[in-house]
Amino acid sequence: AAGMFRIALAKDTYASKDYLPGDVRYYRDGLNATITVEARGDHRAIKANGKPEASSDDDMPSQILVGLAPLLLHDSPEDVALIGFGSGVTAGAILQDRRVERLTVVELERAMIEASAWFEDLNHGIPPVENAHDSKKTMSESVKNVVDTQNNTP
Q1: With b meaning 16 or more CB within 10 Å and e meaning fewer, what string describes 67-104?
Q2: pLDDT tens track of the chain, all 154 residues?
């Protein structure tokens, strides 16, 4: 079910003579979403059903801060849960904190984790995450007993 995210709002951009569609580097119809990685020059974006979830530049401060801000507020964030994997940049940022012993990532679409390989230069390689789940039932079971901090990607 690939589609354009908010095409009505972006029609001027897409109708412009200067608009160049991105090169599709990754495409997979997953169980929950169609995941793509598109590139325009050095810019890469990972998308779910056409909606950008993360990119290689525009939202980088948000991707990093959403992971690190909760760690600043906790004295000993050993067990961290992250809901949503995206490009893996947030997970990679969390794992740079040496106090973090375990990161549980809850991602409903396995193809998102596969596609994050296109961001290895930014996410410190595919982070060694535990318990990447693909159902809401498993998500609630795994997170309820774990967490010192819980992060949710924007």
Answers
A1: beebbeeeeebebbbbbbbbbbbbbbbbbeeeebeebb
A2: 445 555 555 555 556 666 566 799 999 999 889 999 999 888 999 999 989 999 999 899 999 999 999 999 999 999 888 888 999 999 999 999 999 998 888 888 889 999 999 999 999 987 666 555 555 555 666 566 555 665 665 5
Q: Where are the alpha helices (DSSP H) in the chain?
A: 7-15, 60-72, 89-94, 110-115, 136-143
Please state, as a whole number, how many other Cβ atoms lie within 10 Å of the Cβ of residue 52: 15
Neighbours of 61 (CB within 10 A): 9
Distance, in Å, from the CA atom of 17 to the CA atom of 54, rounded to the nearest integer, reads 26
Judge if pTM exceeds 0.90: no
Q: How many CB atoms are located within 10 Å of the residue 27 CB?
A: 14
With vertex at residue 25, the alpha carbon angle to CA 106 and CA 122, rounded to the nearest 5 degrees, is 55
